[in-house]
Amino acid sequence: MEVLNGFVENIVFKSEDTGYVVCRIRNEKTLISAVGTVPFLKEGQNVKLTGYWTVHKQFGNQFNIQDYEELLPNSLDGIEKYLSAGIIHGIGPVTAKKIIERFGEETLDIMENHIERLMEIEGIGEKKFQIIYESYIEQQGLKDIILYFHKHGVTNNQCVKIYKKFGPNARQIVSNNPYILCDEISGIGFKTADRIAMSIGIEKNSDFRIQSGIKYVMNQFCSAGNTFMPKNNIIEECENNLLISKELIEKNIYDMAAQQKIIVENINGTEVGFLLQYYYCELGVTSKIITLGLQQIQTINSDVDFEINVFEKEQNIKFAESQREAIIGAFNNGIEIITGGPGTGKTTIIKAIIHIYENNGMKVILGAPTGRAAKRMTESTGREAKTIHRLLEMGISEDDESVFEKGESSPLDCDVIIIDEASMIDIILMQNLLKAINLGTRLIIVGDVDQLPSVGPGNVLKDLIESDYIKVVRLKEIFRQGAESLIVVNAHRINEGQMPLLNQKDRDFFFISEDNQERIANTIMDLINRRLPKFNKSWNKLKDMQVLTPMRKGVLGVTNLNTKLQEMFNASSKDKKEKTSRDIIFREGDKVMQTKNNYTLKWIRVSGYGENEGVGVFNGDLGFIESIDEERKTLTIIFDEERKVIYDFNFLDELDLAYATTIHKSQGSEFKVVIIPVFMGSPFLMNRNLLYTGITRAKQLVVVVGFQKALMYMINNTNSIERYSSLKYRIRDIITKDEFEE
Q: What Gene Ontology terms describe where this protein resides (cellular component) (predicted)?
């Protein structure tokens, strides 16, 4: 090994995730090229490098860095360059010069031992000092953590999350339980945690390791939308991950059940394992649904049939028998479900229910799972609708955990709650909603059960319908306004297994046949950039048009289409700042999507109706990057409903480009124009349910591009990935027991 001392003159390339760097180092003799994994290397640093020389075919001699040490500068000029390099947030060239002028050769000692004295400098107030202080302390703590975890394959961003989660004692906490990383740090899987565990001497057959593995595979399984995992699946997955015997795994499953770490039950003849959270959520939902169904409800003073007739006259409409049944059911039951596809009159029914209740002096509140769905509900009813999270007044506790102010001790103040787009509600959100509903309050659930199920765990709407306990009204008839739209007509045809009506003049549903994936991609680009804007000049290319694709990978996957569309609409420019994360370039002006629920992100509303500030940005929320701040290491996004959110660079793994997105991620959204590529792929992705969901996201136009045989295949394919949930069985069991006891 050779040792070189030098000055970092230029960083040619740096991966934020891995810390791999290509740089130019100036030493006493010459300028050399150096490469290696050195996460804290910055321009302006004096360094001592340990490594060896290699010869690159294209770039010639390179010094391969194996270890490095930062050498603090000993001249005033060197200290100024060091502070100006952007190593510490809040200190740029101007501030660095002021610090040197004030403290001179004492500067580094001041930074190390008396950093609060920086507030003596003009321009550094309490707010800016806090940024500098937190950055400096974090840099010191992070160095130790990154150097320790890097050798186990943990990326820089993950190291930052470890530090933010566990603080300066992160190494000790993880050493006590390496598997905590699987549960707490996004992107770290069992194998990485297991490598760390093996390196510190945890035995392969230890109960601690096996039980951590069991919990990990159950978490992974439930992250796909399941609330439980069959015991045989747990054993099989653990056997693959842990490389130990089935007997040891099964023993530990039962040991964990005995210790109440997991729950083992028989569901519909199969022995299964539950994580505690989902088990108690299902129990809670079951109990409250039964209670709401049995409750004594307040009757209204007027005749409902008469009120419906009056509403029909006022609106110049005539309700179908099923619609009238749905409205009457909302007054005769403590809980009711209304389900139907587009154009079946769900919105008109909601308006009638609100009208009659309010005429009788009763308070109605409206909610939906997403901001977009709540906004549509507001526009269609003329009454304010809120997201369920806002209804429940979500906030942040002292421990930075999300909490709901509304619950059993502080229920929602109303007589009736109407929830729309209920197919998107997972078991956790439903449990929190039901906890906040007082006895005597009616609950009306509206949704389309043929849509894809929630992204989160459970199959709530479908399970509630199939429990055979709740009053359910199914709307199937398409009404006049809906019948004029081929989007509506074809959605129903597809749902019934029929080919859609295609390419009728002056209509809103078109199919463009292309025979290979590259041509499909090129046609999509041409549609958005040229043909559709020419067809309707009022459509905004970015806000009104959305590409929805069945999958993430491949020529027609989200990743590739986003790269192409970004280059078309928001190409690299000297006027636009950029930030790369996970090989994705985020650029000012980009259309982006939040890809996971973050209950603690704070937002401020910059315009529009509603609260001025709040917390929570959720899976599927869309926005545009307003600015990127390299000094503060932040990225600012304006989301739907004009909510401004500031992201730390280390949390960009929660974002993705959104020029194209998966159909699953589009749930609850609505776009004027939807473009869907269809091609032969996985039978579990290319199915009727997915196609139906994608088409029903469109308001004014659908364009399907691709193979006609793939379109036919999707319509005929009713296979989908089975979702494991037990809510309907639990409700049925209670009903059966009650009937037996009677």
A: exodeoxyribonuclease V complex
